Amino acid sequence: MQLNPAQNAAVRHIDGPLLVLAGAGSGKTRVVTEKLAYLVERGFAPEQLLAITFTNKAAREMRERAAARLRAQAEGLTICTFHALGLRMMQAEARFAGLRPGFSVLDADESFKLLKELAPSGISKDNLFWLKNTISQLKNQGHDPGQAMALAGGARERQAAELYASYQKRLAAFNAVDFDDLIRLPVAMLEEHESLRSRWQARYRYLMVDEYQDTNSAQYRLLKALAGERGAFTAVGDDDQSIYAWRGADPENLNRLGEDYPALRIVKLEQNYRCAARILRAANAVIGHNPRVHPKTLWSDLPEGPPIRVLVCRDNDHEAERVVGELIARKENGKCRWSDCAVLYRGNHQARALEQALRLTSTPYVIAGGDSLFDCAEVKDALAYLRLIANPSDDGAFLRVINTPRREIGATTLERLGEQAARLNLSLSQAAGQDSVLAQLPARPSAALAQFEHLLSEWRRQANRTAPDELLAEVLDRIGYSEYLDTLDKTPEQRQRRQRNIDALKNILAGFARQRRSGLAELTQVVSLLSDADDDDRDGVRLMTLHAAKGLEFRHVALVGLEDGTFPHASAVDEGRVEEERRLFYVGLTRARQTLLLSYSEKRRRFGSVEACTPSRFLDELPAKELHWEGREPERDAEHARDLAAAHLARMAALLDG
Ligand SMILES: Nc1ncnc2c1ncn2[C@@H]1O[C@H](COP(=O)(O)OP(=O)(O)OP(=O)(O)O)[C@@H](O)[C@H]1O
Ligand SMILES: [Mg+2]
Hints:
Elements: H1 5-12, E1 18-21, H2 28-41, E2 49-53, H3 56-70, E3 78-81, H4 82-92, E4 104-105, H5 108-118, H6 125-140, H7 145-151, H8 155-174, E5 176-177, H9 181-192, H10 194-203, E6 206-209, H11 217-227, E7 233-237, H12 253-260, E8 265-267, H13 277-287, E9 308-313, H14 316-334, E10 341-345, H15 351-360, E11 365-367, H16 377-390, H17 395-401, H18 411-424, H19 428-432, H20 435-438, H21 443-463, H22 468-478, H23 481-488, H24 492-516, H25 520-528, E12 541-545, E13 554-559, H26 570-574, H27 578-589, E14 592-601, E15 603-606, E16 609-612, H28 617-620, E17 627-629, H29 634-657
Parallel strand pairs: 1-7, 1-8, 2-3, 2-6, 4-5, 6-7, 9-14, 9-17, 10-12, 10-13, 11-12, 13-14
Antiparallel strand pairs: 15-16
Helix pairs in contact: 1-2, 2-3, 4-9, 6-8, 7-8, 9-10, 9-11, 13-27, 14-15, 14-29, 16-17, 16-25, 22-24
Bound molecules: adenosine-5'-triphosphate and magnesium ion.
């Protein structure tokens, strides 16, 4: 594939900072990948190159593309997310961050649980979420608890600052960090220690960031600290696709780049290589409704493509059924794979009706980011055991596994153990290893704790010389985990699914250990970042939220639930965030390469009752001439119905034959 002149200029510009600011499908990600290869050809060692992607999946894809170009040399490249980069830096420099090696990384659920425990009892759910988000924002802005307290304007902010302080204290006691710390701590380390900064700046001589518009301020500071004055970096992004402001991303970072790096060169790409011309025109029209700082005109010389179909459905079940019917016909007529088709929606709850319709028609599907392997209790249990083996300070892991399976160690015993641990400044596991502590507890739970500690120390000895998947097998065997699972599940299917999940985890551990030969602690840290991994290579219709679809492309895309209140989301409308919703709509439209299907229901079940819906205001922003709106042109409807029926008959015949 030939790069166009603007792409070429972006790839070859290596003397100073560069921003590629361009619309959807214009080849920004492509530029990053090509540039990796170009830099290696120009004599950069792969080890000196760093490319940052938004998700693990994007990193994996970029690695595959780089490997196709660079073969073995690609192995030395660092291609990862901001969080994975932060983790890497902390593993290398733990003591600068006040951590001991073997620290644990709490996932989002665990850190929320911890906050809940520390928050005043009886606090409302809304308040708790507010506190969680506020603390996360404070962390992303680089404020420590002391600064947060100094900044607090009212009682509510002071409460947040106090909770933040006790939360950090507890994390420190656990020798643990949360996801926000994975960025905050490296930033603090680099900004404080000159020597560290020079070391890391020398290590990565060239930096690239994809989806730059969605970085938050902590991520920007990390980038700046790593790039230093030299400014050897390329950032690529599209302000029209900024869709994470609600989560702390700061689109201002685009302008900040120009202010902090006066030598910044900006390259614009204007040709879209992804979308059929009609789809691109529709997307351009929609985004034109937003006030824009950097207006862009994208063109495409791809074929027009068929009109964008708008389906009008009775309710969500009807909608799901019809969308699936349309996709089956696309697959049948277009001779593509199921994975070339995607259904995108605003919220995860919308997947349910679709799943049902897919199952009823025996259509294979894959839900991205839905029920992740790492959300399953059995996988969390197994990982908690490994974490506790690697990090005796990990009280979160201790509490998760101490009664899994049951060891008859009650809440009172654990409370007393906790008091003793606090008094002696030890972790729960360390305290349970002290005879003097055990002596103060009732005989039975005390014996159970002693036995548990005994097992742990045995596994800790083994950890150095046993492969992690084998260690896990040994642990699960010793604790009778299999028998424990037998008591949990009602059906053999549930039981088998759990076993498959455990086996999948073992495979992942074995794979990682082979690749990196790292220790157990490092391994559990890395695995804890995998939660957004979509490593499912099965062929199936892709189901995902619009947010998760960022950066991806599919031949056929269906965008469902286009009702006001669903999309744009009611709370976004209330809070005046319609422009961000419109950017999300733009992201959705521009995922489609060949055909685009839009649908809405006239009625929708919400909170148990049925309510009438109005079509999304975004539908009215699409140019009418690009649409084939069901019910408005009866002849076209009839023709489409005939095509659909023919495709379904063909599929039935194929199913019967096969
Ligand atoms: N010069 C080119 N010639 C042909 N195809 C290209 C060219 N550049 C990019 N493409 C193709 O266009 C599609 C879109 O490219 P890419 O994903 O890099 O765009 P993007 O700007 O990153 O999009 P998004 O904004 O959605 O992230 C890909 O299929 C890519 O292979
Ligand atoms: Mg991209």
